[in-house]
């Protein structure tokens, strides 16, 4: 038997995200992990802020200036949404932990609602902060 | 039922301990939920503190964090959040990092990072809380 030609198409690797049809539950599951990872790094911002406060007026002034700049405010705005999305994702999981909310329409609605609520709450919190400031 | 029991390779002692194959039962899962619930409450207070810090000159910022209630809320937030984030990142590493050596290194680095963040924040809060900065 003659040796067969090497296949011109690479054999498929084990499937990952790209082969699935996107659903709300899939999107929000990925976002919950991604926001968790972002918060893991974001905790450094809290550390910088607190250590600067303990270090003296010069260090604190620099950090306060940065967070008050447009890029600092943008980071804090994003941080707020990331935190709220992860928090609401956690609440969603608390509901699922009790064994409730697993019907198709329920789990899709819970996932959709947590995304909408995280965006809405972020806007409300920043509107309040800017109004009361 | 008696037949099912005799068919199990689990020792009576392991069954009494009830910790399963992992050897530590549901501890990780439970701690993640417990700190998650704590974070939920603490983050609301934390957000109010951050909002109140906004635009304060240094002496007033120090005075705010030095208030016992504020300092205690910050301490609790750091403890709960760093435990929670360490457990969360541990699962991410276990899911995606496969080489034994690399996984061990990543898990160790994860613990170092969480403890370092916690130590730095806790020290800073106590330093501000005990006074003498302004």
Automatic annotation (TrEMBL), chain A:
Subunit description? Part of an enzyme complex containing four subunits: a flavoprotein, an iron-sulfur protein, plus two membrane-anchoring proteins, SdhC and SdhD. The complex can form homotrimers.
Upper taxonomic classification of the species?
Bacteria, Pseudomonadati, Pseudomonadota, Alphaproteobacteria, Hyphomicrobiales
UniProt-listed Gene3D superfamilies: Fumarate reductase/succinate dehydrogenase, transmembrane subunit
The membrane-spanning stretches of this chain are 37-56, 62-84, 113-132
Protein's UniProt name: Succinate dehydrogenase cytochrome b556 subunit
Q: Does the keyword RNA-binding apply?
A: no
The cofactor binding remark recorded in the entry reads: The heme is bound between the two transmembrane subunits.
Q: Which Pfam families match?
A: Sdh_cyt
Membrane topology per the entry is: Multi-pass membrane protein
Automatic annotation (TrEMBL), chain B:
List the subcellular locations: Membrane
Q: What is its main location?
A: membrane
Q: Name one GO molecular function term.
A: metal ion binding
According to the record, the segments passing through the membrane are 37-55, 61-83, 104-126
Concerning InterPro entries, the annotation shows: SQR/QFR_C/D, Succ_DH_anchor, SuccDH_FuR_B_TM-su
Membrane-topology descriptor: Multi-pass membrane protein
List the Pfam families. Sdh_cyt
Source species: Methylobacterium brachythecii
> Mind listing the UniProt keywords for this protein, alphabetically?
Electron transport, Heme, Iron, Membrane, Metal-binding, Transmembrane, Transmembrane helix, Transport, Tricarboxylic acid cycle
Entry protein name: Succinate dehydrogenase hydrophobic membrane anchor subunit
Q: Provide a GO CC annotation, any one.
A: membrane
| Function field | Membrane-anchoring subunit of succinate dehydrogenase (SDH).
Cofactor(s) required for function per UniProt: heme
Biological process (GO) annotations held by this record are: tricarboxylic acid cycle
Q: In which pathway does it act?
A: Carbohydrate metabolism; tricarboxylic acid cycle
Assembly with partners or alone: Part of an enzyme complex containing four subunits: a flavoprotein, an iron-sulfur protein, plus two membrane-anchoring proteins, SdhC and SdhD.
